[in-house]
Amino acid sequence: MRAKRCVPVCTRLVLVLVMAAAVLLAPPPPLFAADEPQADVTVPTVGRTWPVGSLPRVLRGWEPPATAYGPGHRGVDLAAAPGAPVRAVAAGRVSFAGRVAGKGVVSVELTGTGEPPLRTTYEPVTAAVEEGEDVAPGEVIGTVDATGSHCTVTCVHWGLRRGDTYVNPLMLLPPWLLHQGPSRLLPVYGTP
To answer: Which keywords fit this entry according to its UniProt record (predicted)?
Structure first.
């Protein structure tokens, strides 16, 4: 008698457990555009200069998150000395210059990069520009803060977004700027 009564109860319990496992193990739905594949974002090569130095050392590269709030690195960390000038990589308008969570941040909407426009961010930076100001490629927009960096050495975190989608900022730079090195003269064969 007891076994007959247990069958419907046990069946329901197993069904509830299977459904709970299916919900918990299912991949989460995309929360917003940051979950879209990287290939869906077009980035024109409008960069004309590095944000710091002429060919800074990349301390940590771009590591796109699998989900909107997942682990990853939503920018590039560039080695830079405290007080070094930080430059706008391309022409644009300063959309923010101030402090966020105790860090100095400068954000620039890039001219002619579509809708919504691409927006670069630089931190930790002491701003030398104000919101609404137009900037030219290579123009100094601030200086590297000595503190506030998440790197083990002083660095500038350089980010890029289109709307809510994070993009690799190195895509802004032309290939020749990414691999600059010393000039080399090559021999002209057949010439005395």
So the answer is: Signal
CATH no., domain 33-176:
2.70.70.10
pTM of this prediction? Answer: 0.71
Q: How far apart are CA 87 and CA 49, in angstroms?
A: 8
Peptide bond into 82 cis (omega under 30): no
What CA dihedral angle connects 82, 88, 94 and 100, to 10 degrees? -30
- The full 3-state SS of 161-175, as one line of letters, equals EECCEEECHHHHCCH
CA-based angle 166:171:174, to the nearest 5?
160
pLDDT in tens, 35-58: 334 445 778 888 889 999 888 999
Query: Tokens 């977004």 map to which residue?
Result: 161
Q: What digits encode the pLDDT tens for the residues 116-135?
A: 999 999 999 999 999 999 99
Domain boundaries, the chain: 33-176
Tell me, what's the pLDDT at 129?
Answer: 98
User: What span, in angstroms and rounded, lies between the C-alpha atoms of 24 and 18?
Assistant: 10
CA distance 155 to 149: 6
73 beta partners: 63
